[in-house]
Specification:
Distance between the termini: 144 Å
Shape: rod-shaped
Helix content: over 70%
Strand content: under 5%
Radius of gyration: 64 Å
Number of strands: 0
Mean pLDDT: 83
């Protein structure tokens, strides 16, 4: 670093000194003007600025590059976490689809079983209703027969018919019933 400073100062001062000539007239030269002092002041000022600002600037850029590296690392970690979450979500989706298929299959089987049970209950109820209808029909037939017999006995038999024999009564009743 010092070598660079020395080379820089030498490249500025040596040509200035060489080009300055000693002439007798009162022209402005390097030695009788304040140019040399201005260059010296500027060099000192630039050196002080470099000394004071170089380290903070370096630290800023080093910190900035480390911050960027840390952000990049965090982003990569988040990306990896997102990929892992996506894979987990895909696995959960596959499991959910399988479970849904199982539920649909179970529901279909249950529907078939329920339909079979309902059909069996309906068949049993239908046969029971048919039996009840037949029993009611037989009961009504017996009632009708009794009513007919009562009518025949009450209306058809008079005092004159009492002398009839049993065969005649039976034939009269069977005619009425038929």
């Amino acid at each position: 670093m010092r070598v660079k400073k020395t080379v820089l100062i030498a490249t500025i001062l040596i040509p200035s000194l060489i080009m300055a000539g000693h002439s007798e007239h009162h022209s402005v030269t390097m030695f009788n003007s304040d140019f040399f002092y201005r260059v010296l002041n500027f060099t000192i000022f630039a050196g002080l600025i470099y000394y004071l600002v170089a380290n903070p600037i370096k630290e800023f850029f080093v910190g900035r590059s480390q911050g960027i590296a840390n952000q990049l690392k965090e982003i990569e970690e988040k990306l990896q976490a997102s990929k892992n979450e996506r894979l987990a979500a895909e696995e959960n989706l596959a499991k959910a689809e399988e479970k849904a298929k199982e539920i649909v299959a179970d529901a279909t089987n249950e529907a078939k079983v329920l339909a079979t049970k309902i059909a069996e209950k309906n068949a049993a109820l239908l046969s029971q209703l048919e039996k009840q209808a037949l029993e009611k029909q037989e009961l009504e037939t017996k009632k009708a027969m009794r009513n007919t017999i009562d009518e025949v006995l009450n209306s058809g038999i008079t005092n004159d018919d009492i002398t009839l024999d049993e065969s005649k009564v039976i034939s009269l009743i069977s005619k009425k019933v038929a």
